[in-house]
From TrEMBL:
One Pfam family, short name: adh_short
Protein name: Dehydrogenase/reductase (SDR family) member 13b.1
Sorted UniProt keywords: Oxidoreductase
Entries under InterPro entries matching the protein: NAD(P)-bd_dom_sf, SDR_fam
Family, as annotated: Belongs to the short-chain dehydrogenases/reductases (SDR) family.
GO molecular function annotations of the record: oxidoreductase activity
């Protein structure tokens, strides 16, 4: 009996340490204030996007919530205003699965907002399907939509430099690959609807984020616009809300105990957006508020350039 109690005690102790040290992770230590600055956060009506927006609003930024759903976006706007105590929080509708919506958003933003200091490409989905333009849904939303949005807003970012672009990726990119033949023939990263294919294509889309960031940094040399990509950690958020109900129920205890909450999960995004002195690290990848080395496939010059050229052709830019 005493041995059993000892084992149970050890297990609880290890779990406690994991939960409060490993899972919790580092926090953004920047004290930067953002009065007079404007930030766009995509996908900011929920998850780490919303907690990122709350923090930035508390620092005095004018925060643009770029979200697809008008009802959820406006509800998030009111909540973020209450949480932050700031009235400088604005909802603007943006559907990253629609090239028309992206161009409309950029046009409206550039007409109504004189500044853009930080662009946070945060939105992401893990769901199969097609966009209204016929692209694979995860390719269209997780990569191509942000690719077009960034390029449409790049001149304003340059005008307001020093400025930053944050591309939220994931360590899942390590398991990704880019099938350029499939992209050219099907305008998708992969085909199939099984759960395994779903996860693989999600990983592929996260590799797209890393390669986009790599090529973008090269093209931004000589400007005062810098860009960073990151792994936010395993987050207990709404990313998997489109998975089956049974799987959500099974995974809930695991995600609650072993995954970061959204406040913990947004810390590396905030670090990349705010931390002073990281400009020489433009193009690099961060995890747990620390710069990390990427595997070779995520910093492949030829693959990054090829993805950029295909993306330009597909989005018509």
């Amino acid at each position: 009996m005493s041995v059993v109690l000892l084992v149970v005690g050890v297990v609880i102790g290890v779990a406690y340490i994991y939960r409060h040290i490993v899972v919790k992770g580092k926090r953004c230590t920047s004290k930067a204030k953002l009065h007079g600055k404007t930030v766009i956060v995509t996908g900011s009506n929920t998850g780490i996007g919303k907690t990122t927006a709350i923090d930035l609003a508390r620092r005095g930024a004018r925060v643009i919530l770029a979200c697809r759903c008008k009802q959820r976006g406006e509800a998030a706007m009111e909540e973020i205003r209450r949480e932050s105590g700031s009235s400088q929080v604005v909802f603007m509708q943006l559907d990253l699965g629609s090239l028309k919506s992206i161009r409309s958003f950029a046009e409206s933003f550039l007409k109504s907002e004189p500044r853009l200091d930080i662009l946070i490409n945060n939105a992401g989905i893990c769901l199969q399907g097609q966009t209204e333009d016929g692209f694979g849904l995860m390719f269209g939303v997780n990569h191509l939509g942000h690719f077009l949005l960034t390029n449409l807003l790049l001149d304003r970012l340059k005008e307001c430099a020093p400025s930053r672009i944050i591309n939220v990726s994931s360590m899942a990119h390590n398991f990704g690959k880019i099938d350029f033949d499939c992209l050219n023939s099907h305008k998708a990263l992969g085909l199939g609807t099984s759960f395994i294919r779903l996860l693989q294509i999600y990983c592929d889309s996260k590799l797209c984020n890393a390669l986009f960031n790599h090529e973008l940094a090269k093209r931004l040399r000589g400007t005062q616009v810098t860009c960073y990509t990151l792994h936010p950690g395993a987050i207990s958020s709404e990313l998997g809300r489109n998975t089956g109900l049974f799987l959500q129920i099974v995974l809930k205890p695991i995600t609650t105990f072993f995954f970061k909450n959204t406040v913990q999960g947004c810390q590396t995004t905030l670090h990349c957006a705010l931390q002073e002195g990281i400009e020489p690290l433009s193009g690099r990848y961060f995890s747990n508020c620390t710069v990390r080395d990427l595997f070779a496939k995520a910093r492949d010059d030829a693959a990054a350039k090829k993805l950029w050229e295909i993306s330009e052709r597909l989005d018509g830019s």
